[in-house]
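Hi everyone,

Forwarding the result from last night's run.
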Amino acid sequence: MAVKTPPLILKLFLTIILVSLFYFLGSYSSSSNSTTTTPLHDHLQNPPSLNCNSTTHVSISPPLDYEPHHSLSLPPQPPQKLLLFELCPKNFTNYMPCHDPSREINFTRNRFFYRERHCPGAHQRLKCLLPKPAGYKKPFSWPQSRDYAWFNNVPFKKLTVYKKSQNWVRLQGNRLVFPGGGTSFPMGVKGYVDVIRRIVPFKSGTIRNVLDVGCGVASFGASLLDYDILTMSIAPRDIHEAQVQFALERGLPAMLGILSTYRLPYPSRSFDMVHCSRCLVPWTHYDRVLRPGGYWVLSGPPISWRTSYKGWKREAKDLEKEQIILEDVAKRLCWKKIAERDPIAVWRKPTNHKHCIRKLKVLKSSRFCSTSDSDAAWYTKMDPCITPLPEVQDIHNISGGSLEKWPKRLKKAPPRITSGTMEGITVKSFNEDDRLWKERVSYYAAFSKHPVWVMNVVPFDAKPNTLAVLYERGLIGTFMDWCEAFSTYPRTYDLIHAHGVFSMYMDKCDIVDILVEIYRILRPEGAVIVRDHVDIILKVKGITDRMRWNSKILHTEKGPFHPEKILMVDNSVAAS
């Protein structure tokens, strides 16, 4: 069979989202709708780094011919006119269905609940395609995008004025420039990170996954890439106007998120470090997502209040009271303060709860959560309690098991699998899945030569739910329900990969809504790879044709007689 290289993939995809992703270990199920959440990272040498200087190549089968081949002559059929999707009005260019400010007025401001996800019902969802901003240009290639973005792509000036003294972002001609400043590091993030790394072992390989809360334009997360550390940066859509959108335009992992009423959409024990720079949120709720032995880094009021209260224009006695409360809460969480150096303070979570159990019996002011599923996080309400760590036999053991240092942890079966707590997944099936996705990714493209970061998206109700396994491997991702919109701005991702997602959601919601959402979050000139049963693929193609996308149906590596097929979509000629 002749091989053909489709032109749509002849470019490097900066950021990739794996949507569906019903299973992380797709190979242990022989069904056609098994899915995966980590195919690309399995084949990467340096996952957090982004590189757009080379060309990505694909060598796969030619488009399939679904026309009948028989000798009977039939009368010609009149051509059918496609009912194309219309473009949304221009004022929907930056529309986010679940973070729509026009809907926020319907919800209480108590605990910032109005800034949580509030999605429209099925009958209220848009059936039109979001237009690009006027003058939109292809984003800068990495690593240039870390420092520059086109203003027309994110045409918001408020941050350039409101945060001018803190050097978040500047407007120079038609470019936005990111000098690396932040609320706690107006003179640049490098010196700020240098202070932290003298306390937290960035270069040891023990710190891989970091959560940055109230991230600004993600300059902190961008700086940690130099240490091979992958940072999930989150912030709400708030008065700072599009701070997360700036981060995404820079090519950095970021999501809309807030600690208000619900848990963050990540499993328990996901992050080696959590950072908060004047993020003004109830920071004590991070105990659940912080790993045993993980670090909590805090800067801003009341830290260093003795030398900073005048600059903050605050009363020293008020700040001192806040510090006392802060220290007391950390004590009741069983966290140990290991350092306070201007401008930061660092606490460390215990590696297990042996001592904490005894301490809480004495204090009688804190309690362990009674929930049976500490990983549950999709619209799961937060409680003022301590998430219990897995039990250990010895005081020196690490709850949940010890993780390998990065990058060894990427390839080795993580503790949740080796301990047998992930029902249905064994070390053998893990290794088989690792081999399978190496084969599949090499079939798609030579991604191993081009470092990218991947947002792994796992349906919240997937069984087994493997997002926690992903984090133990040093990857990042989020829970999701694809019957709703994603917590991100339009034009976020360069490539979207969907394995089995449409089969999974076919009877749950309208797949048209899912494809319209994919259109919203895909960058112009981006691409989509859909892997599913041939019947589903044909239905999806019928919809993407109406979206003005070029698409081709291809065989998988399983050959022409297997019902699983690939739909390769090129968005480069989509309507503007």
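The first strand starts at residue 15 and ends at 19.

Cheers,
N.
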